[in-house]
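Section 5.1 Outputs to date
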Amino acid sequence: MQTFEAFNRAIFLRINATPATPHWLTESGLLIANYAIWIVPVTLACMWLAAGEKRREIAVRASLVGFFALGINQLIGMVWYHPRPFVTGLGHTFLAHAPDSSFPSDHVTLLSAVSFTFLYSGKRLPGMFILAVDIAVAWSRVFVGVHFPFDMVGAASVAWMTYVLSSALWSKWGSAFTRTCVAAYRKTFAWPIGQGWLRP
């Protein structure tokens, strides 16, 4: 375990920015670390609003996989606390963050859950796009000093396992649940749908 942690810290120090890092690179890292996660709700909303049974089913599934994966993260954090780099005084921190458990990364878990769902569902273009954002966010969160590299490996693993373990349940109830969501959407937004502003 000590060797594992030493390796984790060594990789962190290789990636982590320092006061000597060019300002534009640090600012870019902060921008990605703070805001790239918003690509998830935007992408899922666009898929839903584009309509089509298959697109909406994938959007619902990706949302659920992400939701349950984040729930597993919370359970892991309750059972095992792993301090963030700045809590141990390691490296340099450029982003204010609560000193909660670092393992696994919620940002990367959500992005991985969505990208895996897209890719396994045959949506290669959006899947590869979200995966590219996922990798950028993983780098940035280590770069600005709030995560260790293995937090990202753990996040991707949690997301993948959640997708795999939920597959049987989705095969049985996924289509029915999606139809329920579509019915609720059509009822809630009946007026703008009737006006032609939204697709039914």
